[in-house]
Amino acid sequence: MILAAGRGERMRPLTDHTPKPLLPVAGRALIDYHLEALARAGLREVVINHAHLGVQIEAALGNGSRHGLRISYSPEPEGALETGGGILQALSKLGPDPFLVINGDIWTDYDYARLPQRLDGLAHLVLVDNPPQHPDGDFHLHTDGRLRETGGVRLTFSGIGVYHPDLFTGCEPGRFPLAPLLRRAIAQGQVSGEHFTGRWVDVGTPERLRELDRALIAAAGSPD
């Protein structure tokens, strides 16, 4: 599942007329990078939620055949359902097994094929080094591979996670965040993690979008 329902307030005015996942980066829509990476990893079924200007997302991506994927959509009401509510609404499309969720507003060269095929618990999160805009991080990755809220150096949640449907047991349909569910599961020792040290960008502002655009264009023009 790719999360694409956010309004993108920090991206305004760019997102006034274009949904954030369709913003261009080095000549391609941001979400295209995710779709291509998922296809390379052998994944074929993708669910995309949307709210703000969602019809543009469906028109641009269609059924996913251009990427060798099968895309289905989970439309949300105006204002969206936040991450937790959006995933809960899409559970019927995601099936009974653990599923991958990716924030639509990140860019990364993470290889999704390296994610665990089975979960030892309720979730597995990919963590990255803390970016300048989030210096304190989110969670501590213990030597046993489990996440803690305290106990050592904290890393930042990348927006890439694998979740078991049981993480949402007891949740009621509607608007709610994902973070409290993760924190509860972490407290129960039910969340594993990994530290990814490759390329990752939280494309949350026009400035970071421009920086990524310049970096990818420069890399494409490099003889290496």
UniProtKB/TrEMBL annotation:
Matches recorded under CDD domains: NTP_transferase_like_1 (cd06422)
Gene3D superfamilies assigned: Spore Coat Polysaccharide Biosynthesis Protein SpsA, Chain A
Gene Ontology MF annotations: nucleotidyltransferase activity
Domain Nucleotidyl transferase span(s) in chain numbering: 1-124
Any one Pfam family match given in the protein's UniProt record, by short name: NTP_transferase
Keyword list, A-Z: Nucleotidyltransferase, Transferase
Transmembrane regions: none
Name the record gives this protein: Nucleotidyl transferase
